[in-house]
Specification:
mainly alpha, 5% strand
Length: 149
């Protein structure tokens, strides 16, 4: 289990660096860099899924299907040791940091999109974009813009 945690930690450290690069690209309005980062993210998602599948197989062989690592430690299914707890806490901290920066990036992107939408409205171009579908429940419009805009 410790080896899987170590692998996850290394993966999340690299992913966190990518998330910070994405944040910088959003701030700089660098669409090309952002596009490359989003492509790189897909690779990390696949790697994360692979590590998660390894973890799931190990947990299943231990007879703990469906249990989280925290629950396995708390219930005594695996021996609680210092290195395991350190790696668990380190991974947990990394995941929280990734969530935080990801949430910040999402907020920044939403603000940018609102600004673009407002600019299109002011220019009278809002109805001349690629997609102009209305959400029936809220009346809000969904807008898809070209990278060139």
């Amino acid at each position: 289990m410790i080896d899987i945690l170590k692998e996850s930690i290394e993966l999340y450290k690299s992913f966190l660096e990518l998330e910070y690069a994405k944040h910088d690209a959003i701030i700089k309005n660098d669409i090309d860099e952002l596009d490359a980062i989003v492509s790189d993210e897909q690779v990390y998602y696949m790697k994360m899924r692979g590590v998660d599948q390894k973890r799931e197989r190990l947990v299943e062989t231990m007879g703990c299907s469906g249990m989280t690592l925290k629950k396995m430690i708390d219930t005594g299914k695996i021996e609680k040791n210092t290195e395991l707890m350190e790696k668990y806490n380190e991974l947990n901290d990394l995941i929280q940091e990734v969530r935080k920066i990801n949430s910040l990036c999402k907020t920044l992107l939403e603000v940018r999109m609102r600004k673009i939408d407002d600019a299109l409205v002011q220019l009278g171009e809002r109805d001349k974009n690629y997609s102009n579908t209305e959400n029936k429940s809220s009346g809000a419009k969904s807008v898809l813009l070209s990278k060139k805009v």
